[in-house]
């Protein structure tokens, strides 16, 4: 892979890992960043953008093989009205800015890979393949607006792929480190009733899905980027306790989490108490092979 890949939102947990993997595969990687560009020693080039308006950064899309858009403010915060506005605006503004740049390019990227989230399906106990309807509530509404903006901005001549990403598990960042810490302190019990789904994915597998989306001309449309074995919160935490040799922990009552999450954890309790059981039906049908298809294998790999 010797093509140029433009990565918007490439300084976060997923973006930084993906940039490294792309470089390992021989790609020229350009990261669009809202921060001051740094001189890096890993061969990744950073270019400034504001995530809202056109600028010199748009020239990087000319003749690029693909653009990957991960840009958007984190939802791991208290969902106040102001934070909700920021979460939505950061996503829509980035898509629209990229869309304008792609359309203005004389030789636009061949592919545009756009991040979304399994939160699209809302809080549900049903197994959700890609054809399942959107749920209701703030998180599904964010995803619906995000995907609709992409559909409006991605030109028909550009191969568009939407990846609805699940809960990403990485050894050094993502959901795993904080969950492992509390579990090792004998506090890794179920959240609330523990019935809410966790559609998880190992970081290594997610990187491979992005690489496939960039390179495989057959990939088009929407895919669930999560492992084929979603788990209830109770089963997830039970498996994590087993891997970390912590046989039991008290459950965390929902009412307590609604108090503690915004005050102590500075996040929204809905991120813990709500979930879905998404399955990667399209990836499996197209022959994608997961490194960690089962939860026990993923958590064991991270704990080693």
Outline the fold blueprint:
Blueprint: E1 4-8, H1 13-24, E2 28-33, E3 45-48, E4 66-69, H2 81-104, E5 111-117, E6 127-128, H3 138-153, E7 159-165, E8 167-169, H4 176-184, E9 197-198, E10 200-202, H5 203-215, E11 221-225, E12 231-232, H6 233-243, H7 254-265, H8 270-273, E13 277-278, H9 281-285, H10 295-303
Parallel strand pairs: 1-2, 1-4, 2-3, 4-5, 5-7, 6-13, 7-11, 8-10
Antiparallel strand pairs: 9-12
Description of the structure:
The strands form four sheets. This protein has a seven-stranded parallel sheet with strand order 3-2-1-4-5-7-11, with helices on both faces. It has a two-stranded parallel sheet with strand order 6-13. The protein is 38% helix and 17% strand. β1 (4-8), α1 (13-24) and β2 (28-33) form a beta-alpha-beta unit. α1 (13-24) packs across α5 (203-215) and α6 crosses α10. The protein is of the alpha/beta class. It is built from ten helices and 13 strands. The model has no long low-confidence stretch (mean pLDDT 96).
**Portion in strands:** 15-25%
Low-confidence stretches: none
Tally of individual helices: 10
Mean pLDDT: 96
Measured between the Cα atoms of the first and last residue, the distance is 31 Å
As a percent range, the share of helical residues equals 25-40%
The biggest sheet, with number of strands, parallel, antiparallel or mixed sense and barrel status, is: 7 strands, parallel
Radius of gyration: 19 Å
Based on secondary structure, the structural category is alpha/beta
What is the overall silhouette? Answer: globular
